[in-house]
Amino acid sequence: MPDAVMLFAAGFGTRMGALTANQPKPLIPVAGVPLIDHALALTDSVGPLRRVVNTHYRSNQLATHLAGRDVAISDEQPQILDTGGGLRVALPLLRADPVFTLNTDAVWSGPNPLRLLADAWDPARMKALLLCVPLGRAIGRKGGGDFGCSADGQLSRGGDLVYTGAQILCTEGLATIAKSAFSLNVVWNDMATRGELFGLTYPGRWCDVGHPEGIAMAEAMLADADV
User: Fold this and answer.
1) What's the pLDDT tens digit per position in 61-110?
2) Per-residue model confidence as pLDDT tens digits over 200-209
């Protein structure tokens, strides 16, 4: 099992509109808890893990919020590096391969996603294992699916599976990318051509909180889980 996790928290949160005018998206509260803390809570029960959070937009606020906690910060200045570039510059802090990565703009109800990934990880076959949810169960999702999945679990582009933002990823492919800022989609596409990109379906509920309407949806989902 990976012993380090990268939490992506550097984005501008432009889809959140006025909610991110004066604060970074990971500090927006859902059910009274900042999004970043929802994500960190998932890592608390899987581990111990070295935890790295990348920052850029209003990075000082995130640094203050995380002060005194067992979290390293990879501050991307002056340029934001996207998911692939951000992960690559954080590797000296992560000190692991493979690693978990986790987006901080989603909320979960059900089994711990990192534990599910760890239990299904097969390094003999996989270079990446992405946790996905069917489009019909992707609460708050705007747009279509990301992937289709074969009988043996290999992912391909197109289909009704939505990537949830949680994965296990081997990182050696990051070194081959010439650009400093790039998306992990570049790495996934290369893995897919070699039959090394795999998916796992999440059995619980998941909500995209990347837009304002997602906050109420996530709170309703969590409230229903408490009944």
Assistant:
1) 999 999 999 999 999 999 999 999 999 999 999 999 999 999 999 999 99
2) 999 999 999 9
Distance of CA 128 to the CA centre of its chain: 13
Q: Which residue has the tokens 């990971």?
A: 26
User: At CB < 8 A and 24+ separation, what contacts does 42-49 make?
Assistant: 42/102, 42/108, 42/112, 42/113, 42/114, 43/5, 43/7, 43/100, 43/102, 43/114, 45/112, 45/115, 46/100, 46/112, 46/114, 46/115, 46/118, 47/3, 48/3, 49/2, 49/3, 49/4, 49/5, 49/100
Per-residue pLDDT tens for 133-142? 999 999 999 9
What residue ranges define each of the domains in the chain, with the CATH number in brackets?
4-226 (3.90.550.10)
